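During the reporting period the student researcher (J.K.) took over the structure-prediction task from the postdoctoral fellow and processed the backlog of single-chain submissions. One of the processed entries is reproduced below for the supervisory committee.
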Amino acid sequence: MARRRSSGITSLGFNQDQAGCFTCCLTSGLRVYNIDPLVEKTHYSREDLGEVALCEMVFRSNWLLVVKARRPCSLMLLDDQRRKFCSEVLFKSPIRALCARRDKVAVVLQSSIQVLCLPSLQRVALLRTPTNSRPLCALATEPGALQILAAPAHRKGSLQLLDVSRAVKGAQSSSPAVVGCHQTELVCLSLSANGAKLATASARGTIIRLWDTVSKQMLHELRRGSDYADVYCINFNPSGSLVCCVSDKGTLHVWSTRGQPTHLAAAALALPSQDIRAMCAFADDNNAVVICDDGTFHKFTFAADRNYHRNDFEYFLQVGDDDEFLQ
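J.K. obtained the following structure tokens:
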């Protein structure tokens, strides 16, 4: 096991296939990894890109949406096959987060979310958001399904759901529907791939609530724990029948939502500090993957009898042709 050192990671994110690939933005470039097997797929050095603040893959295509640290208001579309930028759009405020599907990308700004078409980067929808909210955003990614955009609303603990499907034909999007989800501030949200289910967590972090995006009714409450926690990530499996989450408690939780919800696993990541942020996703219906900003990769297998085991652990920054990113 390698000695833990400062990683230089600025952000991490799974692609829309969840545990198919993930991006690792660094003070010294950008890496893209394939998960099964864990191998480096793309490598950009500091000389290539400089410090990268954000990167969003578009499934497994050659498109990478990139925000450089020195150009925080600029969204750039990188063609990874040609290793060349093919388009760019400039905003009036820094880009705080990105969320993409095959034909659109949602760009989270200081007080709004702008939805752009891909690959033209032409704006097709605008959603106003509270200025002091976390940069939260979710897009349904399954082709032909509900094209729902979810984001915080102006009332504390509420979110808004916007149908952006009409934007494909150039029409104006309808007004967003507002759903009151929690009494305290929203800190995390996620949509199922088909847009039918929504998961939310508040600043308390003790429960995850599941919602039906059509009826706007709550489906289930999933108990994470009794102590307050900062929920870093929530994700559905592709069918929406499983939910996972990670928080500053350093634990991965997995639930089945088939019929009456069942808590399947509470796997400890054994992280050295609560300051280490993590992202979680499903590799398949029996395996979950966690990536952390200390450069560690965890893979857990779980079963309906609530037994689980960690079957893979790596320092992913050491997977590749060198370890130049370790500082």
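The committee noted the following: The first helix runs from residue 46 to 49.
J.K. will present the remaining backlog at the next meeting.
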